[in-house]
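Task: sequence design from structure.
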């Protein structure tokens, strides 16, 4: 029997144990009406649990209707959203995957069309005016957002959504502070032009994220993990960068964050990004080493050998698969077969292996 590959060793955070280090990354589906999960989401997410992944995370789930990227985003701003999500969490858990949800607010990037409908914001995006850290548009094609007048409202919206996530049966929450969306836009000097207590210095620009983490941790069970996704760099001179990401991770760890999901970019359009296999893994590696916190690696990780190498060389604690999972819902089963590991095959599928 071959030695156990670290990618297929369990890992625990608080009371939750992942059966392996392979997770399904949050990926927008733009397939909702009024924020409600449907049979599509049950099949989409459920198939990845059957496919052997240790963690299955929902797409960015809006904490407020005006916080949706498109009018077709998943939502958790109303109690009506809970029951459809309960079907999903029960199925994921039944088939061995940790059910996770990413909570998000799109901020100044809200109100776009779905990618296959053109992707650009309409003149009056989705019937609502987007909120932004400052009254400047993301691009000249986007509307000028209304500056968030009361950041405490955003804090309350995240906390209320986290409580609904608890009631829906999720075992892990990830806060979306990446890709130019609201929390990230507060972090970055590129977008944050505020002159109040939420702009200017590093402490001020990260204040909203710290307040959201504290409020979510207050309502989220202490025995369940809380993650956050960073854009570790803006790739823009004078913008948010890896040094600030390391500093923020150091601040968030003692107030209840268990893992940093390390992504990048998104604060400015048309910025050159050095996309290539594993191009963001170095961010996860550095934050892990310097902060002593679990990290998740994402981005152009497309083969089982590549994922296994990341874990074996201690560059990250978990690997999240995105587009490769869209192509192959059973990526984890294929990885186990290629790496000659015991297959986490559901009983009804065993004869196929």
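Answer:
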């Amino acid at each position: 029997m071959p030695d156990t590959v670290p990618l297929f060793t369990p890992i625990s955070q608080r009371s939750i144990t992942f059966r392996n280090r392979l997770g399904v990354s949050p990926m927008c589906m733009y397939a909702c009406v009024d924020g409600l999960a449907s049979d599509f989401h049950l099949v989409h997410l459920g198939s990845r649990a059957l496919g052997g992944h240790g963690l299955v995370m929902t797409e960015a789930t809006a904490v407020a209707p005006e916080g949706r990227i498109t009018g077709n985003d998943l939502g958790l701003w109303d109690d009506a959203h809970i029951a459809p999500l309960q079907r999903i969490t029960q199925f994921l858990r039944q088939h061995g995957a940790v059910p996770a949800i990413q909570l998000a607010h799109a901020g100044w990037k809200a109100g776009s069309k779905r990618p296959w409908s053109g992707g650009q914001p309409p003149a009056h995006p989705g019937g609502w005016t987007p909120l932004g850290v400052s009254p400047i548009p993301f691009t000249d094609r986007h509307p000028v957002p209304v500056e968030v007048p009361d950041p405490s409202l955003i804090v309350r919206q995240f906390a209320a959504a986290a409580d609904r996530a608890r009631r829906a049966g999720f075992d892990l929450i990830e806060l979306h502070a990446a890709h130019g969306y609201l929390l990230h836009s507060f972090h970055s000097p590129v977008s944050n032009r505020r002159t109040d207590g939420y702009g200017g210095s590093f402490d001020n620009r990260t204040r909203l994220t710290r307040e959201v983490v504290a409020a979510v941790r207050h309502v989220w069970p202490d025995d369940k993990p809380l993650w956050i996704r960073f854009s570790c760099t803006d790739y823009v001179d004078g913008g948010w960068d890896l040094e600030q990401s390391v500093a923020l991770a150091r601040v968030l760890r003692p107030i209840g964050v268990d893992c940093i999901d390390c992504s990048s970019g998104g604060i400015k359009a048309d910025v050159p990004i050095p996309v290539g296999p594993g191009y963001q893994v170095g961010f996860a590696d550095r934050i892990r080493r310097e902060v002593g916190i679990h990290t998740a690696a994402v981005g152009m990780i497309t083969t089982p050998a590549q994922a296994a190498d990341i874990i074996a060389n201690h560059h990250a604690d978990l690997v999240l698969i995105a587009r490769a999972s869209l192509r192959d819902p059973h990526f984890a089963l294929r990885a186990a077969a290629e790496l000659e590991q015991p297959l986490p095959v559901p009983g009804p599928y065993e004869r196929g292996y």
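Residues 151-168 form the longest helix (18 residues).
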